Predict the 3D structure of the following.
Amino acid sequence: MPLYELSLTLRTLSRPELIASLKRSAETILQQGGVLRQFVSLGTNPLPFKMKAHNVWHREGTYFVMKFDAPSSAIENLNDEFKRDIDLIRSHVVRCEEPVKHECTLEEEMKPPAYRKDVQQLIEEGRKVIRHKFKQNTPGFDFYPFQK
Amino acid sequence: MHGNGRRRERDCKKKVGREKKFFAVSKLQHFIMFGSSGSRVLNVINISYLQSRSKRVWVRKPLGSPMAKSKIFRITPKPVIPEDEKAEMKRLFDNYKNSMKSLRQYFFEQSLKQAESGEVAQMKHRLEDQEHERLMEENRLENEKTAMLREERLKIQAEKTQKNVLASLIKKEREAKQHEIQIEDFLTKQMSTPFIQPENIEKAIEDALANPVNFNFALDLDGYVYRGKETSIDMIPEEKRERLNSN
């Protein structure tokens, strides 16, 4: 079961209503065979633009994130459930992936080209002269056995 | 005047010579002109046969010349042979063929018999037998030699395969063990991350709502971190200031 992250945008509600709504969506995850991992609240903030959900215009929303494990087959059902929930303005499920590890090489890259290691390697390679040497095909001799 | 006359004579001689040469050239030209559309007569008649004028020589049509126009639609009548004569001829022919065939066979067999029964042939047979025996013996020896070599080779190969199989088995075992360890690691990792029990949902939601998080942050050139909606370093108390260190 992969780890998913559900981000919810709820309409402005009173506290008990908000808790009830969040509990409802958490329970739908459990019903679909999921395991809840973490809840994060991002507070009530103005929306980036006015949004229409279930025939009502909204300018403010409560942002909430749920992390959960669930079978990938359950995601479609979850999306369907959340679409029909009238307390939710927006919902989106994303799969959490392990962050890619990068090594910072800015210091090396900021050097002038002549000091960079990869450039030095390139210069060295360019200095090598590759000349085609004719093979005499005379096994065992280090000299040319025929008249020159 | 006298001088002029001599010159004229010389000129005449020259002319004669030229004529002779011209004749020779024209002859050659006719000879060559067969293929092209020259004069029709010369196309048919080979001039090389027309050298003597006194005798009349049979002139042959050259090879590849077409059929005469008058003979194009002529059909030569088939020779008519009566039926009984035909049958008689066939009988005679068959008789001839059969007798010749049997004679030929008889002579052939005779010659074979002669070749078999002669002293030289006997000698040849004996030599051939001896050669055959020698070759068989050689073959037997060679077979024994190769059998020995094969046995050795197979032995070495068997040892090798045994070693390989053992190595692969050990490798497989090791991999299985590693896989188990990996699974255990994964499980412990999963168990260590906390998960919310169904009965604790409400409490977890309340906790989360009580501590809202803002993931936004900004950096300035000195490496100071501005969390949320902080915009000025002066607004942050000194003990709460965060700074990224460049290594």
